[in-house]
Design brief:
The structure is a single chain. This protein has 140 residues and is mostly beta strands. It is 10% helix and 61% strand. Strands 1, 2, 3, 4, 5, 6, 7 and 8 form an 8-stranded antiparallel sheet that branches. The radius of gyration is 17 Å and the shape is elongated.
Length: 140
């Protein structure tokens, strides 16, 4: 019984990860940036025509050195640059708005996203996201 439940959980978890034309999926991500900055985000990606994607995201960024943190939500448009049978490279253009618990902040986003399909309904996504937080204190 445990074996069947484990297979069902694995199948359901992998089912939402497949990103081809016309699908929608929920993405959770986290990482570590420069200067002891940690980041986490949740986003909803959906495909549009010609393998392009749109993303609605919410993110949290925290600096462990200065205890500065931001909470933002935003939108990103991801047009496809290169596409092969199992690989795609997208440009990521977007913007986020939110707060740093004291003031209003906004951040334009620019980056790249590489997606590789490993097996049926399983993708690995490597993302480079660059953003400049406007109206943040100079120490950050």
């Amino acid at each position: 019984m445990k074996y069947i439940i484990a297979i069902l959980i694995f199948y359901c978890g992998c089912f939402v990860c497949h990103a081809q034309n016309g699908t929608k999926y929920l993405k959770f991500q986290g990482g570590i940036g420069v200067r002891e900055i940690s980041m986490g985000s949740i986003s909803f990606d959906y495909n549009t025509n010609y393998y392009n994607q749109n993303e609605i995201f919410g993110e949290w960024v925290n600096s462990s050195r200065s205890q500065y943190q931001t909470l933002m939500g935003g939108f990103a448009f991801k047009p496809i640059l290169l596409r092969s049978h199992n690989s795609s490279l997208r440009l990521r253009l977007g913007a986020g708005i939110g707060t740093d618990t004291r003031n209003f902040v906004a951040a334009p986003n620019l980056g790249l996203e590489f997606s590789q399909t490993l097996a049926n309904r399983v993708d690995i996504i490597i993302e480079n996201r660059n953003q400049a937080v406007l109206w943040a204190p100079k120490i950050e």
